Amino acid sequence: MRLDTIQLSQRLPIALCVLFVFAGIANASSGDRLPEFKSCVTDCISANCGKDGAPIPLHHRTLLWTCPSECDYACQHVITTQRLARDPPYLTPIHQFHGKWPFHRFLGLQEPFSVLFSLLNFLAHYWGISRLKAEIPASYALRKYYIGFGYCGFASWTFSMIFHARDFVVTERLDYFAAALSVMYGLFYAPIRVFRLDRPSASATDSSTSRSSTLIRVWAVLCASLYFAHVFYLTFVRFDYTYNMAANVAVGIITNVLWTGFSVVRVRKVGRIWAAWPGLIVAWIVLAMGLELFDFAPWGGMVDAHSLWHLGTVGPTVWWYNFLIKDAREDLQDKRLKA
Question: Does the record's keyword annotation contain Transmembrane helix (predicted)?
């Protein structure tokens, strides 16, 4: 168990850096440049988007589908179908359009399974927060930080659902900013638990308690400042996909190394399998990231690697809340034994 955890900490930076490289490539889109696609969209708009154009269903209009966007969607599938009919799939790669695969909509949702799996992650956080509130007493010092993690998860997966339902500039930005918030909050509360910044020194005095609180406040201000600087740069200077990915990867590496180290130390101290859960959860996440590296055209026009990556984070989220509760119970029990 200890060897696996140590090996994980060595592999994690490599895996995340490879993800960073491929994520930068994934934004390219070849379908937009196809002459037949451009011609199809132009002809469709000319024929259907006048005063007497074809009506758009209400559920599509509710999700802000317009006549030009309907033409764009229809032409993606027309061109894809024509190319696949002309040549075998292994000779004719399916092109992406506007950075996305040509997904089949469902009830107007642009990427239905990414929406569904984002919802499952949202529900996993809802379940986790409910359990935290029910099973950890309000007096426990770390409870508020764990609940904060859950609320960041709410924000992240809410905006993920919105973005995958309809891809606009604003929904994309909100999805990126909420995800960055969740990643940064993960870095914020990890050292509070790992190094017990909430706990004054063994020779507890009023001054040591005050120093502990001050340290957490300084750390909170630093993390908040870094996050807002990140958002400011992307909003008002340049929305740089490569920089955004690099920033999140860097923060994620630090956070995951902290939890992996915590697992090694904790297993040695208590000798119980649950103490290794953070390291094992990190391993799960790293494996799930492989879905982002080995992208493929969507099965059935709906299920792609990115949606499966979202599905792959549901289990670790549930597992993580179980760890937080188990760890808190053990901590509380130790306090009672020492009292």
Answer: yes
